[in-house]
Structures are given as C-alpha cells and as structure tokens.
C-alpha cells in the first residue's frame, strides 16, 4: 500500500455501509478519499471523524451523469485528480423482476451498472491524460457472480451485479489495448451486515447469531489487499464469503429461519 500513500481515491456510496468502511480504511492507509453520496450530512459526519484534510465529502447522485462529471472536476481542481476508483454505490430490487416496472429496471440499472461504466470511463480517460498508474475496484456480489446458489428470487439486482463482472473484463481488455497502467478488481462479497440488507431483512442482527454474516470491514480489508498487490501482479477477481460457509449455503438456512419465525420478505 506504500505506493498509494498520498494518492487520491474516489469512493461512491461512502455515506454508510461498505463504502463507509472502505473510505475509513483507505484514509487509515494514507490515501486521501473523495467520498460521494447523496446524503451530504452523513459524508460530513465521516469527515469529522477521519479529518477534513483526509476525507472530502462531495454530494453526488450517481444516477445523474452531470453529478458524476462535476465530482471528477472537483477532484481534479482541488486534489489534482483521482488515482483509485471504488465503484460501490448500489441499490437493491424491491420486487421480483417479473413484477417490476420498466421504470424500476431503469432506476436500478442506472445506479448499479450504468453509473460504474461512466465513472470508469471518466477515470480511465483522466489516467490516460496524466499518464500515471491507477486502480479500479468494482464492488459486485455473489448474487451477480453465482446467482444459481440463491434459492429465493432477488430481482434485477443480480442482473446488474453480474454486469459488473463483465464490465471488469471489458475494461481490462481496453486498458491492455491502450497500453495503460491501470488494474481492475471485481470483488464479490457474500451477505454483508449493512442497512441495505437490514431493509430487506429487518431480523438480520438476530439472524447473524445463527448464520455467519460478513462485516463492512471484511470488504474494506479486501480492497486494501487488492490495492497492495505487488508490481506485475493484478488481483482481477475476489469472492469473499464467511469462513466455514459453503458458497450459497446461507440461503437455505435463511429460508428455514424465515419459515421458523414467520417472516415475510
């Protein structure tokens, strides 16, 4: 991580959950962080904790391209541009795909997949202009990489997360074609105890006593690991699940827990 000390990272969705932990961990490793989210008050709260000369809160709705472009412009003018991009912001599906409206499709695709594409494009072009090294980290999900392990439907969320893996593949191809020094890492976490999963499953705190659940720090540590890969090596993909849990096995346990406690999703 020494090579990134003093560099600038842009982290989307950093007002809470995984993004909050990633931003905090990056600052602890000497990286300046531009934190993006819609909730400016939450970003400012994190800035007070981490230091306003270390964490820079910038309000941004990733569903709006103008906001994304303004965030890059701010980083360029104030900090000399961005060296690390963490595409973390995402929303979940509220219903099954067959019960969702086209507008629901657009909303989730815009935030979970289109926004990371725009961020990656702007980041890569900025790196190419400066002729420096960079690293893109896309926070996907096992729901996107291994959707067949899920017994219950989770809507278009898994479709968009699957797209992040393909995005990483194509970005790597184009980066090599342009002879750029940019690494790409796709991270596929299992269930993580965040507000997103609490909204979907209010009993998550009680459930986690029976079923192993990851923490945001687990994912933040994974980001640091990928960034710390040695010269000449690239951590292209990482799947992170709780220790001693078979991939996909928490889902049957979850279903049994729901049935036992008469919980309706």
Considering the chains and any ligands shown, give keywords for the structure.
265 residues; single chain; alpha/beta; seven-stranded parallel beta sheet; disordered C terminus
Following the backbone from N to C, one meets helices and strands in this order, namely EHEHEHEHEHHEHHHEH
Structural class: alpha/beta
Strand elements, count? 7
Backbone CA Rg: 18 Å
Poorly predicted parts: 250-255, 257-265
Give the N-terminus to C-terminus distance in angstroms: 41 Å
Strand content: 5-15%
Strand arrangement, major sheet: 3-2-1-4-5-6-7
Q: Which whole number gives the mean pLDDT?
A: 88
| Form type | globular
The major β-sheet equals: 7 strands, parallel
Tally of helical segments:
10
As a percent range, the share of helical residues equals 40-55%
Brief digest:
This protein has ten helices and seven strands. With 265 residues, the chain is of the alpha/beta class.
Structure description:
The protein is α/β, with parallel strands linked by helices and 265 residues long. The protein has ten helices and seven strands. α2 links the parallel β2 (32-37) and β3 (55-59). The protein has a seven-stranded parallel β-sheet with strand order 3-2-1-4-5-6-7, sandwiched between helices. The chain has helices at 17-28, 40-50, 65-79, 102-130, 142-145, 157-177, 195-200, 204-207, 216-227, 250-261, and strands spanning 8-12, 32-37, 55-59, 84-87, 134-139, 182-189, 237-240. 48% of the residues lie in helices and 14% in strands.
């Amino acid at each position: 991580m020494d090579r990134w000390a003093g560099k600038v990272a842009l982290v989307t969705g950093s007002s809470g959950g995984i993004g909050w932990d990633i931003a905090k961990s990056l600052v602890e490793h000497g990286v300046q962080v531009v934190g993006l989210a819609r909730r400016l008050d939450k970003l400012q709260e994190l800035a007070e904790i981490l230091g306003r000369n270390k964490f820079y809160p910038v309000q941004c709705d990733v569903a709006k391209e103008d906001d994304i472009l303004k965030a890059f412009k701010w980083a360029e003018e104030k900090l000399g541009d961005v060296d690390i991009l963490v595409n973390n912001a995402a929303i979940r599906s509220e219903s099954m795909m067959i019960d969702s409206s086209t507008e629901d499709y657009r909303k989730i695709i815009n935030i979970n997949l289109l926004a990371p594409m725009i961020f990656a494009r702007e980041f890569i072009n900025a790196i190419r202009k400066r002729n420096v090294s960079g690293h893109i980290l896309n926070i996907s999900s096992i729901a996107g990489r291994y959707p067949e392990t899920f017994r219950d439907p989770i809507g278009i969320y898994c479709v968009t997360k699957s797209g992040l893996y393909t995005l990483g593949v194509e970005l790597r191809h184009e980066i090599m074609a342009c002879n750029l020094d940019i690494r790409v890492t796709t991270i596929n976490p299992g269930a993580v105890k965040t507000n997103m999963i609490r909204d979907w499953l209010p009993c998550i705190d009680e459930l986690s006593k029976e079923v192993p659940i990851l923490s945001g720090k687990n994912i933040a540590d994974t980001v640091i690991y990928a960034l710390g890969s040695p010269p000449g090596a690239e951590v292209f993909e990482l799947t992170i699940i709780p220790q001693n849990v078979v991939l996909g096995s928490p889902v049957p346990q979850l279903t049994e827990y729901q049935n036992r406690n008469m919980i309706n999703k």
